[in-house]
Amino acid sequence: MIKTKAAKFGLGQSVRQLDDAFNGVILDVDARYDGPAGDMGAIPTDQPFYKVLVLEKDSGVLVYAAEQSLEADRMPDNAALPQLKRWFRHDDQGRLQPRFVHLH
């Protein structure tokens, strides 16, 4: 039986990647690795993996990151990335909430 653990981070949450020190926002969560076989090397694939929109000054890059490589981060300021408005809205408490939620 395959065990999966609950995801530590949620959609719209700000995170920081520990090794490359980039900041981003969670766009999607996979319960376990869902990428090409053999690409992960020594990183365990039985943990949640996240699609993270990396926040850069003028654009965003999408990366796929293991939970063990991320930590919670402060929320980005509204000017951090104009594309955030495409994916998220601010709720009544100022937190980012996904505009669209796709179930898979």
Order of adjacent strands in the largest pleated sheet: 4-3-2-1-5
The CATH architecture assignment turns out to be Roll
For the record, the count of structural domains works out to: 1
Beta-strand portion reads: 25-35%
**Roughly what percent helix?**
under 10%
Radius of gyration: 14 Å
Q: How many beta-strand elements?
A: 7
Helical stretch tally: 1
Shape: globular
Secondary-structure-based class equals mainly beta
CATH topology: SH3 type barrels
Distance between the termini: 21 Å
- H and E order: EEEEEHEE
Name of the CATH class: Mainly Beta
Major beta sheet summary: 5 strands, antiparallel
* Low-confidence region ranges: none
Question: What does the average pLDDT come to?
Answer: 80
Give the helices and strands, then pairings.
Blueprint: E1 14-17, E2 23-30, E3 49-55, E4 60-66, E5 70-72, H1 84-87, E6 88-90, E7 96-98
Antiparallel strand pairs: 1-2, 1-5, 2-3, 3-4, 6-7
List descriptors.
mainly beta; 104 residues; two-stranded antiparallel sheet; globular
